[in-house]
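Q: Now give one record:
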Amino acid sequence: MPLNDRIARVDKLKSWADQLPLHYEYTAGVAGERFLRGLKEGKILAARCKKCGTKYLPPKAYCVECYVAIDEFVEVGPEGKASAIARSSVGFEGDRLRAPRSFAFVTFRGVNGGLVHLAGKGVDAGSKVTPRFKPKGKRVGALTDIEEFVA
């Protein structure tokens, strides 16, 4: 086919369906991996700066206050506080749920930051909460190892 005919055909092309095969791996990093290993053990770990004592959740590899590397982790909780609550009637796929689902921003005393996670029935803003972990044999080292926070 002559070049001019091919160019004319391309001008008429508006869209096409195709796939781009992509492969990548994303690690949790040093601080994130330590945090996830803690969850598998049934613990919530925060990173603690040795220089200023600031604790971070989720853990950070470097202190935001004094810019030094963090390699110390401390267990926090298990009791935390539902500092904020959000309720949703729509699922992650956009489908309407039969019953609303509650999420809490859970903070811990003396720790900068916190975790956003499912909240059990009866949890309101200001409630004292504790994590309900999956049974030990079913934990995989993921945030979902915590089933929900309960009052």
User: Anything to note?
Assistant: The CA atoms of residues 88 and 94 lie 11 Å apart. The first helix runs from residue 3 to 12.
